[in-house]
Amino acid sequence: MKNKRLVLSVFYMCFFFSLTCASPIDFSCGNIRITVEEYTGAVSLYRKINPEIIEDEKKQDELTKEDNTESPIIKRYTGAAGTKFGALPESSYILAKEKDTADKRIQWEPLLDTSRYTSNTAYYVLLDSGVFKLARSASMQIDASVNAKENTVRVDFTLKKIAKITVLMHVFSSKPDVPADSIHVELIMKNLKDTESFMAIKAVYDTYLGEGFKYHFSTANKDAIDSEIVFEDMSTEKWICSQNATASIRFLLHGDTITSPRSATLANKDVFLTNTWQPPAKIGRRFNSLFSYNNSALSIIWKPVYVASEKTAVLGYYITTSERGAEPAAYENVKAAMKKETVAMTGSTIESSDAFIDYEYIQKLLNRIEQLGLEPDKADPTEIEYLKREVEDIIQQLEQ
Prior knowledge:
By secondary structure, the protein is an alpha+beta fold. 18% of the residues lie in helices and 33% in strands.
């Protein structure tokens, strides 16, 4: 009996130690900061806010009242001069306790609910007939890492012998001479089973900014959204934005390099806690529930696909940010900026540039197309679509 108690005591001590001592991933680049709690896989996003120094306290009080917010007076951060188009500002991979020691005036505004016990931000996977939340469990392993050279945060969720879901967040600058303000998100589903699998991804973001503002959300077609709504086609709405007087976060969900979702739902965060794949939102209902008031969130669901054994399917979209009421970057900006980046694809890495005709790059494309022609079973639909668009762009450039 004593031995049994000793074993249980050691187990609980180890379990508690693993919970309290797992250090989070904390990565910042330009105006973007991403943290990942490696034990749970919880992701948080932040926007850098650079305050304006105002010596006249009376003037500061007047401006604060005018903005109708308690946030400190801030101005738009324009970045260091001389940053070349497509080049990223210097990034850092540091622990949270070491942050902002150089300038205490800089603050990081949370773009999502960051509370460990109340935030509903998470990813879900539909596997055949089962729904799994991507969070640590007895059957799920979580690994998080940072590639500071490529300004990328990676989180791998692995269901042993079933599936591996990777959340890849690449931080970049949407415009010349502006520090990083955007994130390219790739959701990669890999089938680890010996047979074909039916797979889909759902992303839930527990938004924060709009809850204390004059309206919760906006889209390209709707200036103010204050009640639950479901979008089954984003071709008109294009994006969903949550903002206040301090910062903005925009989810770009439509474009020729974006995987448009099957549905996007705005509802009280408790609506997304159910086990049903499609959240039971009620159109027109205020963002309230029995347990939380005025607490909204966003659910994005992509259509299911059949994935062969050991094959992958990739979904992509963008998150852009801004401060002090400025407009977050539009799709046209991020699309142009990403053409300057190294494009990571399954099985290959290809660099693209539309500044001039790069014949070495064209040869890489041709070699890859020839390889896929010889091994059609290794062809990935996402990569084929990408190659098709690149060839069309090159032909257009040659004609010009």
